[in-house]
User: Fold these one by one.
Assistant:
Number 1:
Amino acid sequence: MPVYLDCAATTPLDPRVREEMLRHLGDEAGNAGSRTHEYGRRARTAVERARDEVAAVVATSRGDVIFTSGATESNNLAILGLVRYGEATGRRHVVSTAIEHHAVLEPLAELERRGFHLERLRPDAGGAVDAHAVRRAVRHDTLLVSVMHVNNETGVIQPVEEIASLLSSTDAFFHVDAAQGFGKQIAALRHPRVDLISVSGHKLHAPQGVGALVARRRGRARPPLEPLMFGGGQERGWRPGTLPVHLIAALGTAARLALEEHDERERRCLDLRVRLLQGLAPLCPVFNGDPNRSVAHIVNVSIPGVEAEAAIEAWGDLVAIAHGAACTSQTYTCSHVLTAMGVSPSAEEGALRLSWSHVTPLPDLAAMVHAIDEVRATRGSSG
């Protein structure tokens, strides 16, 4: 089997997380909404424990954690849930960036269709937006600022903590899509001025299909969100439906382990990054995104003279990697992120995202280099 280098798309399930999930699928049968018997009470206890474990990562309280199906749903609730408040207060201006995930860009586009004015800021050539540019864009009628934590294509860390500090003198709500950074970059998401945080479990060695929206209170006031769905009133009415206890318990366990093991996990990821880039150095890869501002577990590179599809095919038996973002890679269209950064068309066509975790083994780097050398030789002889 090829070495899995697509952890930015989804991570392998941690065995300890799987054990917790299966325990609730097997031995525990209660509905967390059933308060009249022991089965329901145990289910509720598991949910609240998970709420505490997710809250601890961002240094908030359990009452600020709303469980969802993942970061896409959380992003939609955070953005579209503010529509009525924005309309009622006349605050129809929204600030975001040109490098957000489509799970943010598309809800923002829906805001535009509803009459809101959206301002999209471009990043610098290294892939990061300027915090002061974000602050300058904020007006008296700005409802929301939405800036991702870690870019899913380049791995570049956005200046979330600095933006949060600069927004402290404003009333604008600050939303962060933290799908790639939650549990991996700790400090920024603990800033009390980050109001809304979207979390996805499957980026953190939890199962697919579970996530959270952290809706942090300012004093005693909760963000004025309106639900997108209606039903049984679960999750303070913001996200109705029977709680999937097994998934929520698994997410809580994954969050706790990420916090407890953060330093060691980051050390392992950094070690693999160094060895991986050293091994691929003979190919003269070009970074798409400033490597000095990137997380330890994602790198985006172009190999001169080799298109991404050719590299992916050549490495098919060696590593599993992605062409840009997994959610849009089936279309093989140019990346809106790299385009916003000003990356050349040839570099975009060759862009490869390699992403790993603390449990990823080192691939056969010599074989990877040899495979690309063969692609270049074949193209050279046919040219």
Number 2:
Amino acid sequence: MKREIINKSVLILVVIFISALFLSMIRSFLMAIFLAGLFSALMYPLFRRFKTWYKGRTSLASLSTLLLVIVFILLPLTGLMGIVTTQAIKVGKSIKPWVQHQIAEPGELVSRLKTIPFADQILPYREPILQKAGELVGVITNLLVNGLQAAAIETVNFIFMAFVLLYTMYFFLIDGKDLIVKILHYLPLEDHDEQRILERFTSVTRATLKGTAVIGVLQGGLAGLAMAVVGIPSALFWTVIMIVLSIIPGIGTVLIWLPAAVILAISGHLAKGVLLAVFCGVVVGSVDNLLRPRLVGKDTQMHELLIFFGTLGGILMFGIVGFIIGPIIAALFTTIWDIYAVSFNDVLPAVKLFSPDPSPDTSGPEPVESAEGQDEDHSPK
């Protein structure tokens, strides 16, 4: 018995060591593998339909699924990013001369500021504001230039990672079910708990992608259309930026349209600035408030606050793809604690919730019964 315990202990240590070594070796591909697993799960119904059409030929069904992914997702995104990159360069070149002109000749800007109702509070600080604006524009321009240079350098790496993702998806679509069964077999959990975790993982992924895509397109599209109507140049660029920022619940698109409205107002277009702010604040903001609880919160069965922190935390830890990974981790966090509560229900103490404060008694003091059984009169004589 003692020898068997030693053997199993050594085996566990070897398993941990070899697994850590293997994961460290492929760490550069872990994100591509993870995304391949997510997209394979989402595209699996389409793969099954192709498999039925091709009478069980899984390789052909997997290739057809990947072809649709390339044609309808990757190629349009690549073309859109090319257009956005071009407009980003144009925006970077147009903003800097404008701010430099305002710094060199502040008289025009001051005259425009006087038309704003709260101009008296802004004018004393115009020089520090212009100085900070010039510094900010310089930083933004450098970031744009450096970002574009880095993007050009990373193009080869992006193409290679896209190939890794598609190649992995090909085998995940064919053998993904067997792989999941094998992974779940290694987990010392009950079948119903494993099934619950798997269903939670899939449902949260689907709801997050679906909800984020719909909300992002609606918010970014509406705000971008409003910018184009009021005459802001490179509206397509700002639309794409707002679609990306919309993954941050509540405040994503505000980071773009609010400064745009302020710049319009101080540039002599007060009415357009106010209309842009009102439209985006009421219409664009209501899209997030109305749809996110229904598209994301309802399907994931998570509180909005948990979705908010899960999304932000995921982005900070994993980058842009964290908007998917963060809510998944948050959902698995709640699920595993629910499983824990059920498994240890026998030893967990019962919790008595605090009852609400009793409503004040307005009926007055109860009458005191005298020795003869009659109510005493306590009114002043």
